[in-house]
Predict the 3D structure of the following.
Amino acid sequence: MANLDTLVRGALASLIFSVIGMVVFVLGYFVIRKMFPFDVHKELEVDQNTAVGIVIASIILGLAFIVGMSIHG
């Protein structure tokens, strides 16, 4: 019974941290869109600007690293 309790608590913690991580990523993306002086969607979709995609990807990876380290402790 103790193993089942540990499993349920671990699954619940994973679910909570996943939701928190997704919220941080969504907020981070909106901050990125407000931070740049141009329309990010237009640059990525219409103009296919690879440099903007690389910058946004690096910011998202940085956020992922920060969220992962905060979860890990």
Summary: Helices lie at 2-35, 40-46, 50-72. The first helix runs from residue 2 to 35. The radius of gyration is 17 Å. The chain has one domain: 21-72.
